[in-house]
Amino acid sequence: MQELTHYIGGAHVKGTSGRFADVYNPATGEVQAKVPLANADELAQAVEIASKAQVTWAAVNPQRRARVMMKFVDLLNRDMDRLAEALSREHGKTLPDAAGDVQRGLEVVEYCIGAPQMLKGEFTDAAGPGIDMYSMKQALGVCAGITPFNFPAMIPMWMFAPAIACGNAFILKPSERDPSVPLMLAELMEEAGLPKGILQVVNGDKEAVDAILDHEVIQSVGFVGSTPIAEYIYGRGCSNGKRVQCFGGAKNHMIIMPDADMDQAADALIGAGYGAAGERCMAISVAVPVGEETADRLIEKLVPRIEKLKVGPYTGGNDVDYGPVVTAAAKANILKLIETGVAQGAELVVDGRGFNLQGYEDGFFVGPHLFDRVTKDMDIYKKEIFGPVLSCVRAQSYEEAIGLAMDHEYGNGTAIFTRDGDAARDFASRINVGMVGINVPIPVPLAYHTFGGWKKSMFGDLNQHGPDAFKFYTRTKTVTSRWPSGIKEGGEFNFKPME
Ligand code: NAD
């Protein structure tokens, strides 16, 4: 069986802790590799290498640093198929979806090519008599990132590209479920010209994460994953004096107004609810039609579309709409929540519980599910399911619908489908959610805007990518400068007698 490594000091390094985690092929259920789980000593070695390398890297001019990003973009495009295949094999998502995962990371790398512009400071001429004042944006030093399984290419790049473009060294602790692509990205960054030790991958679980949170040299921690872990990392990281940003779970509502184009809304819900088996933090998991008649029309449109969904392994190519979920434990958790939905009285309109794929009986496939008449008190409404399960909550008015989304503890993404500009505008203005779609079901902002939720979906002050990333990965130093008045008249040629 393949034994994966860490990537430390520019080389693949075997784990020394003696602890490993299994990496599955979710389509077959087979263990295809084992990944080492680092201990605090292994993490400390990486930090030592990073802190030495970082000083030289920060002194490289920003444009030269940006050239590494330019070359890295070329290499990502060159290796797109290889990366997508490795990603699908460990994660389970379809190949086009895996290429999209790489692509949305690549776009942030492209944005970071503009780092020299983003890192320019500010200057006030003559802030006082003979006094100038200027502010510099300096690198933090050694930064770390802890990433989830569901975007093993995109989210690491969202973190390390801006961090490194700003002159930091970066230690990535990827998800232990799908660590191969992060290792490949580190190799490619070095092929693009990045000095050794600036991007390192330390694989691991809670032990490695705690070592990151407690290491005094590490200046900042970025985290993306579930809310309980986000809260934990934010608390421990901040109390250790680090700069921390943590992005957590989600329960994204899509409101369907009576005037919406119902075919468009149903198509959008299929992609946003079931794409990537619902394992997206921006997936729509709650549909909120306004009015009984809207709800009936929506369900009527949804059911045949859901029944046509093709579930299968990534090797099925374009014949597959979504693949398996990531682990047997994830599948068990989804099925358990579905049972609570049934027990608590929701109407299971599309029942995917009996789903079985011939030849892939041991894979972690979950058939598509649709619940109707879900209510606020049910577990399937309150909890993030992170699977191919859509819940329909019928609202009697627009106010009730917006109130549902506003009262939910998560606030990552949301959408409204309507032809009424006034309703859409009111929704965008009042809703307490970070990313809003108007007739767009998955409103993921592009690289030059910022990504981040509100409420329990985000802990910290600055979002991911866009201008916020350059704030998060630098600190400001302001210099107030006065020079003694010098010789302005030119040389003196006449001998002056002493006074
Ligand atoms: P997770 O919280 O289980 O794991 C995320 C990371 O934390 C992994 O690297 C993991 O090794 C580490 N970790 C797990 N348990 C830990 C512990 N007890 N102590 C310290 N570290 C620990 O999340 P996941 O299952 O990999 O990813 C799915 C979750 O991520 C979902 O909740 C999803 O909504 C969320 N997510 C959020 C965003 C966002 O931008 N808000 C984006 C993607 C995913």
What can you tell me about this protein's structure?
By secondary structure, this protein is α/β, with parallel strands linked by helices. It folds into 2 domains: 2-248 and 457-479, Aldehyde Dehydrogenase, Chain A, domain 1, CATH 3.40.605.10; 252-438, Aldehyde Dehydrogenase, Chain A, domain 2 (3-Layer(aba) Sandwich), CATH 3.40.309. The protein contains 16 helices and 23 strands. The chain has a 7-stranded mixed β-sheet with strand order 15-16-17-14-13-19-20, sandwiched between helices. A 6-stranded mixed β-sheet has the order 10-9-8-11-12-22, sandwiched between helices. A 3-stranded mixed β-sheet has the order 1-5-4, covered by helices on one side. The protein is globular, with a radius of gyration of 26 Å. The termini are far apart. The mean pLDDT is 97. Bound molecules: nicotinamide-adenine-dinucleotide. Nicotinamide-adenine-dinucleotide (NAD) binds next to helix 8.
Number of strands: 23
The name of the CATH architecture of the largest domain is 3-Layer(aba) Sandwich
What structural category characterises the helix and strand content? alpha/beta
Tell me the helix content: 25-40%
User: For the CA atoms, what is the radius of gyration?
Assistant: 26 Å
Strand order, sheet with most strands: 15-16-17-14-13-19-20
Instruction: Please name the fourth-level CATH homologous superfamily of the largest domain.
Output: Aldehyde Dehydrogenase, Chain A, domain 1
Mean pLDDT: 97
Shape descriptor reads globular
How big a fraction of the residues is strand? 15-25%
Residue runs with pLDDT of under 50 for 5 or more positions = none
Total number of distinct structural domains: 2
End-to-end C-alpha gap: 91 Å
Ions, cofactors and other ligands present here are: nicotinamide-adenine-dinucleotide
CATH class of the largest domain: Alpha Beta
What would the CATH topology of the largest domain be? Aldehyde Dehydrogenase, Chain A, domain 1
Largest sheet descriptor = 7 strands, mixed
Number of helices: 16
Domain Aldehyde dehydrogenase: 13-479
InterPro entries: Ald_DH/histidinol_DH, Ald_DH_C, Ald_DH_CS_CYS, Ald_DH_N, Aldehyde_DH_dom, MeMal-semiAld_DH
Organism: Yoonia tamlensis
Protein name: methylmalonate-semialdehyde dehydrogenase (CoA acylating)
